[in-house]
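User: My advisor, Dr. K., asked me to get a structural model of this assembly before our group meeting. I'm new to this, so sorry if the format is off. These are the inputs:
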Amino acid sequence: MIQAVRLQGLGVSPGVAVGPVLRMVREIPEPAPSGPPPSDVEAESRRALAALEAVAADLEARGGRAGGEAEAVLVAQAMMARDPGLAEAVTQRVAEGRAAPRAVFEAFGGYREKLAGAGDYISKRVADLDDVRDRTVARLLDLPMPGLPVTSTPSVLVARDLAPADTANLDPALTLGLLTEEGGPTSHTAILARTSGIPAVVACPGAMSLADGTRIILDGGTGLVHVEPGEAEVEAVRAGEAARSAALASVTGPGSTADGRRIPLLANIGGPADLEAALANGAEGVGLYRTEFLFLDRQEAPSEAEQEAAYAAALAAFPSGKVVVRVLDAGADKPLGFLAAEGVEPNPALGVRGLRMLQRQPAILEGQLRALARAAQVTTSGHLEVMAPMVSDAAEARWFVEACHSAGLTGGIGVMVEVPAAALRAAAIAAEVDFFSIGTNDLTQYAFAADRQVGALSRLQDPWQPALLDLVASTASAAAAARRGCGVCGEAAADPVLACVLVGLGATSLSMAAPALAAVRAALRRHSVADCQAAAEAARSANSPEQARTRARQALPGLAGLGF
Amino acid sequence: MAERKATVKSAVGLHARPAAIFVQAATRVPLDVTVAKTGSAPVDAKSILAVLSLDVRSGEEIVLHADGPDAEQHLDSLATVLETET
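Assistant: The format is fine. Below is the predicted structure of the whole assembly, which you can bring to the meeting.
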């Protein structure tokens, strides 16, 4: 009897997945420079050249399937693999006594240096060249190909971490769960998983040592991974999951606490394509429309007519609800071609981004606000509110409100609270605007000076950090004193336990990835405002995120029946 | 030894798709073909990596060399590829 192995990570997207491991490798390690020389030099050369040819044929075949611009890139990569000069360099290095993987690595290295030293046009080609090299070395070392693996079997995708480029072609139907060694609660993997409703565990040491095909149970709530579980264990997990789904499905209707305090539950969307999931999950409106996602990969600002249609679609989807649109939040991790920073910034997250960018390019903001005003006019239903990202003080808030009024917007005008300075001086900002929306991801990043994109800092990016809860509390108090709404639209709102705490801290609405709505709705409905306040107080009395989570759970008795 | 000078007309220079098209055309020529920028050493025109490494910009002049039967005609057709605006 094999002793069951368990790995512990951080659960970031609830749900349980049972299935085989499928590893994704992004970086192929450099083959060791030393080692015994090949016994048969000619056979070793043939092995290297055959690997290059196999890579070329595979790239060509994928190009044929892709077509268009992607085909041109893949065909050029195939030509690199078949390059006569490269073949000569590989053969020569094998003859000098290198094993095939090392010979290939060094031969590519010679060209890499030349290309990297040439002009701007080529820098992109260096990445293409590295990809061909990694594919060839992977083939020779019998490693998985770098990039998203091709499969037709539903699997749990395991990776060191996932970047947006890795997941662009991810098929949710074939992805039972996501498991990464690195990453934190606000990493791309976590956000993608919650948006798609895929169970996920991040920051899980040992994940990449699982072999392809190993059967695992992954619990996206507790962060626990069972390796090669017994049949009885799998059955028990499936039964528990079914009971949880039934408990969640039994709670429907608008968001409210057990004692009837209305807390509108809204969806975060990136464009009209996300509306269907928002409606299917019972969203009462849109709490965060990330308009920059409409325009990623664009070289020019989109036309006002195109923008108007994208905003009107959301208003039409929620005839009796509200739609909160955040104007373009470009810069840092979301650069836009037509809204580029002036020169290279050493710290883009601390640079010209969000409202700061729009203040320097007022024409872009004016165009977007005009499109929003027209969308509100042509759509008789729905209630449009507009907010600005990355506001730091009252003067910035006032500037934005004036810009909105000049464009003819008549609905509520608000600001995101994601800079600690804004949270600390929320009372002054509340005097200028109609509402706040707390962006917990950035607020945590800035409060803890911990880059969201650095997985090693995930403990500091935890929204359960008591310091973050303090900032939310003071912001919500300032909003309440000024009789302003105070929503939370960061990833924190998607955690059903933390959602109760946020309501206890004074949040008046919660906005999240659509698949998270059911769990938050059920958790809130089982607790009174007093329960939520007690949980908030318990969490703020803690001195670590772990302790805050544990104390809040203890103060929320209704969670037990929901399996969180 | 036949020689032919040509000016690269493609907007992106001898990079990306134009480079691939040129190397594919050179590969079909049954002779050794080299390409050089003025003042630099000639490289194998059938090697995409060598051609990209030359970093030829739009409007720059390059020199093609080949030796053997019909070398002149082959170089003329390659020059036509280079002088096509894309």
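One thing worth pointing out at the meeting: The two ends of chain B are 30 Å apart (CA to CA).

User: Perfect, thanks a lot.
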